[in-house]
Amino acid sequence: MNENMNGKTLVISGGTKGIGKACVYRFAQEGVNVAFTYNSNAQVAQEIADDVEAKFGVKCKCYAFNVLEPEKYKELFLEIDKDFDRVDFFISNAMIYGRAVVGGYGRFMKLKPRGLNNIYTATVNAFVCGAQQAAKRMEKTGGGSIVSLSSTGNLVYIENYAGHGTNKAAVEAMVRYAATELGDMGIRVNAVSGGPIDTDALKAFTNYEEVRDKTAELSPLNRMGQPTDLASACYFLCTKEASWVTGHTLIVDGGTTFK
Questions:
Q1: Count of beta carbons in the 10 Å neighbourhood of residue 248
Q2: Which of 82, 191, 207, 259 has a CA that sits 20 to 30 A from residue 213's CA?
Q3: Among 181, 168, 201, 205, CA closest to 20
Q4: What is the H or E stretch that residue 245 is in?
């Protein structure tokens, strides 16, 4: 347990699987209390919250939230305020896939505004609305750290990923603007950009197995990225060890982007 982190509070969107779930456990094992959101599966979310509290002795609560309605972050944080007396870290992680991205996930000539707009809402608007609410609370405690998840799909070509990749580039730009304007509050803002990570979101890709095998082949480390790889990077950016890191995108890709 990290004494500098013990008793602080993380708010993270999308904590029931993949990178988000890995972050919940990574922070909790260091004594950080956790508030996380889920989209639909209340039972799974509650099981995770109960497991985290039992294993690490921290407070862990889950809240229903639809990332396609980012304006409701205000209501969400008011609910979190009832259970937690402070907010120190915010990670914008939740992402959409499936029906909501139809028209946004596909080759360039098949892209349509509705799908693209949904991805923008879930990526950029959600980051902005969540970070605004978190920053108001962080200011009261002297600062904090905000992290947005991103993807190297805005740097290298991934088939059918134009909609997501473009919006990841947009959220990284928004991160730099937020970092510049929130620094006076003692708030650092960064992004963690992952290469292809073995998650349910990636498994939703039509060419999942091809991406998985190609990633392992491209990486000098000869393996696919795991959710814990990105969770550890998010955790680092929230610690005192990263106290002079802000407005930065930390690429965690197993060396795949260079190749």
A1: 18
A2: 191
A3: 201
A4: none
Rounded to whole angstroms, how far apart are CA atoms 214 and 202?
13
Between vectors from CA 73 to CA 60 and to CA 25, what angle results, nearest 5°?
25
State residue 132 phi and psi, 5-degree precision: -60, -50
Which tens digit of pLDDT belongs to each residue from 117-141? Answer: 999 999 999 999 999 999 999 999 9
DSSP structural state of residue 99: G
For tokens 């960064």, the residue is 190
Digit-coded pLDDT (tens) for 207-251: 778 777 777 788 899 888 899 999 999 999 999 999 999 999 999
Top-level CATH class of 9-252?
Answer: alpha beta
φ/ψ of residue 51, rounded to 5: -65, -45
Alpha carbon 37 to chain centroid, angstroms: 11
What contacts 124, CB < 8 A, 6 or more positions away?
Answer: 167, 170, 171, 174
DSSP string spanning 154-214? GTS--TTBHHHHHHHHHHHHHHHHHHHHHGGGTEEEEEEEESSB-SHHHHTSTTHHHHHHH
Least Cα distance to 128 among 86, 167, 165 occurs for 167
Distance CA 209, CA 117 (A): 28
- The amino acid occupying position 199 is T
In this prediction the pTM is 0.95
Strands 144-151 and 89-92: parallel
Q: Can you tell me whether residue 63 is helix, strand or coil?
A: strand
Compute the distance between CA of residue 175 and CA of residue 189 in angstroms, rounded to an integer: 6
Q: Which residue has the tokens 């937690």?
A: 84
Q: Which two tokens stand for residue 110?
A: 């098949």
> Which DSSP state fits 98?
G
Q: What are the catalytic residues?
A: 161, 168
